[in-house]
């Protein structure tokens, strides 16, 4: 057998499984997204409409949900970056003896079941949760703060969930950076802050970008944490898709929204890879 | 040579952030031992009754069983399919190997909820929805990219001359793979399998669209019982999961230096 034939033989089982259980199902969503939907009757076979897509851009409610999803994505990314950089810096530049322990403290929450982590935040943030109890007990507040079913809850929960990804990306970037550049800048009389802003930060930019893209994409597609901390009333795109399929049974609208989410994701990934390539060309 | 060590304030902030990462974990553990149905600080009374409740509840036991079967089966299938594909792709003898690789990893890029609804529609139309095999295949789709990625990473560090040496000494292709290549890529294999297992164990967005009531998995059960309000039984089962995760992570770290693959 030629090497090429045996290579095909090794790849084709997986290719077949993915075609039958992933690519075809995904493609079959396309016709659904152009079907008309009648409440109580379901999809109208053979119909064609652009209504499902038009609604996302014109209906106030849909626009609000899309906008909220994007704002959430940007905010969570920024929070993760600000919280993640010091941790990554400590792991890479701190005492090497602590490196393994600190890294495991980052990986452990990442490996932990998502529903468990989100549940932890419910215990903390709900009306009778720990935070509200504590604040009431020490007399800071009289009525419980609303920390769930709103932006606050989602920001806290999602930042917590995706922070480890950001830290791991930044650790890799800091490790790949030649150390002596910083030392050189410093020995030439640069202050610490100046070294950080003009040497460390630009040299770790690729890691910052890939970490940000990852966190942003994960945040806008998250379902579990937004549903658990936002409830059925405070919707983001993923939870709205879930409800349209499971509660409203409006598959056409749900699949149009699905494609909107997929194209947002792909656009971000494509745009960023172009951006990085352009930078790499300049360097 | 001087290296710039983190200043005290950077260290302090980093440690605070690391503490923030562990808070929900600690809170869940505390809540599972609390007498009251909502947790107070300090906790009032210590009890094991929630553990007793969970471990004698057939719904929970069945969900645990379902989750374990699903995770083991899908990880095993993903390992076989993923390692075979990675082994062929890394040699780049196929036209468009790069393109095939990104195609095979693409389930990672599509939001899980979209994968879920696409499969819901497809398996409903084809009439297979409700079969346990469909759940296993769905989990293979979402876990195989992890295995592919980490095995490809391990293979790229492989010295091909070791394989050639084995072939020269008369070993056939499969023997070479089994006795030479496989042991060399073991760390990547273990890391990939672990990620696959964990991904399957925690998946909600795909499973929830496909699983019938009898096939409910543990994360789905926790997810839907939380909609009814905070319940310390959830904290108890969560604590068991936390302990299991910590043990698995420590064993994997000892065994393969797992953190390098994360």
UniProtKB/TrEMBL annotation, chain A:
Gene Ontology CC annotations of this record: plasma membrane
Cellular localization per UniProt: Cell membrane
Pfam families cross-referenced by the UniProt entry: BPD_transp_1
Topology class, membrane: Multi-pass membrane protein
Main subcellular localisation: membrane
Residue ranges annotated for the ABC transmembrane type-1 domain, each copy included: 66-272
Coiled coil feature spans: none
Record-given protein name: ABC transporter permease
Automatic annotation (TrEMBL), chain B:
Transmembrane portions of the chain: 12-33, 68-90, 102-124, 130-148, 188-213, 233-252
GO terms under cellular component: plasma membrane
Origin: domain of life: Bacteria
Major subcellular location class: membrane
Listed PANTHER family: INNER MEMBRANE ABC TRANSPORTER PERMEASE PROTEIN YDCV
Sorted UniProt keywords: Cell inner membrane, Cell membrane, Membrane, Transmembrane, Transmembrane helix, Transport
Record family assignment: Belongs to the binding-protein-dependent transport system permease family.
Pfam families assigned: BPD_transp_1
CDD domains for this protein: TM_PBP2
Residues annotated as domain ABC transmembrane type-1: 64-252
GO biological process, one term: transmembrane transport
InterPro entries: MetI-like, MetI-like_sf
Record protein name field: ABC transporter permease
Species whose genome carries this gene: Falsigemmobacter faecalis
Topology in membrane: Multi-pass membrane protein
Localisation: Cell inner membrane; Cell membrane
């Amino acid at each position: 057998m030629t090497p090429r034939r045996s290579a095909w033989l090794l790849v084709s089982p997986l290719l077949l499984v993915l075609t039958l259980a992933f690519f075809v199902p995904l493609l079959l969503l396309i016709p659904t997204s152009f079907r008309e939907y009648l409440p109580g009757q379901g999809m109208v076979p053979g119909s064609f409409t652009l209504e499902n897509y038009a609604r996302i851009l014109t209906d106030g409610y849909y626009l609000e949900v899309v906008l909220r999803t994007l704002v959430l994505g940007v905010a969570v990314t920024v929070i993760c970056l600000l919280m993640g950089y010091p941790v990554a810096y400590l792991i890479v530049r701190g005492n090497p003896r602590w490196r393994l322990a600190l890294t495991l403290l980052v990986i452990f929450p990442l490996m932990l079941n998502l529903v468990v982590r989100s549940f932890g935040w419910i215990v903390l943030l709900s009306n009778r949760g720990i935070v509200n109890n504590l604040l009431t007990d020490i007399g800071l507040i009289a009525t419980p703060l609303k920390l769930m079913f709103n932006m606050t809850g989602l920001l806290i929960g999602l930042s917590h969930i995706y922070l480890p990804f950001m830290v791991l990306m930044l650790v890799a970037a800091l490790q790949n950076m030649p150390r002596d550049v910083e030392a050189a800048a410093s020995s030439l009389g640069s202050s610490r802050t100046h070294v950080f802003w003009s040497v460390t930060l630009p040299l770790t930019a690729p890691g910052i970008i890939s970490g940000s893209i990852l966190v942003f994409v994960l945040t806008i597609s998250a379902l579990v944490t937004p549903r658990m901390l936002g409830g059925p009333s405070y919707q983001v795109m993923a939870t709205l898709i879930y409800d349209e399929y499971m509660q409203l049974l409006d598959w056409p609208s749900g699949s149009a929204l699905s494609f909107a989410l997929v194209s947002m994701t792909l656009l971000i990934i494509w745009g960023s890879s172009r951006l990085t390539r352009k930078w790499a060309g300049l360097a | 040579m001087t290296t710039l060590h983190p200043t005290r304030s950077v260290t302090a902030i980093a440690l605070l952030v690391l503490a923030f990462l562990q808070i929900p974990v600690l809170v869940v553990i505390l809540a599972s031992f609390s007498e009251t149905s909502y947790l107070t600080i300090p906790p009032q009374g210590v009890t094991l009754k929630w553990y007793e409740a969970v471990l004698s509840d057939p719904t929970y036991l069945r969900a645990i069983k379902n989750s374990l079967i699903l995770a083991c089966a899908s990880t095993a299938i993903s390992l076989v399919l993923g390692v075979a594909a990675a082994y062929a792709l890394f040699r780049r003898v196929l036209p468009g190997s790069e393109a095939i690789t990104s195609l095979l990893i693409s389930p990672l890029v599509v939001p899980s909820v979209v994968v879920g609804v696409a499969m819901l529609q497809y398996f409903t139309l084809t009439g297979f929805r409700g079969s346990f095999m469909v759940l296993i295949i769905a989990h293979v789709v979402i876990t195989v990219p992890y295995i592919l990625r980490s095995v490809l990473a391990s293979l790229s560090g492989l010295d091909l001359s070791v394989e050639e040496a084995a072939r020269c000494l008369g070993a056939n292709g499969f023997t070479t793979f089994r006795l030479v290549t496989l042991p060399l890529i073991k760390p990547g294999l273990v890391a990939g399998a672990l990620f696959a297992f964990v991904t399957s164990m925690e998946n909600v967005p795909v499973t929830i669209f496909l699983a019938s009531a009898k096939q409910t998995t543990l994360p789905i059960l926790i997810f839907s019982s939380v909609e009814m309000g905070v319940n310390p039984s959830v904290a108890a089962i969560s604590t068991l999961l936390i302990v299991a995760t910590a043990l698995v992570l420590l064993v994997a770290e000892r065994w393969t230096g797992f953190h390098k693959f994360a």
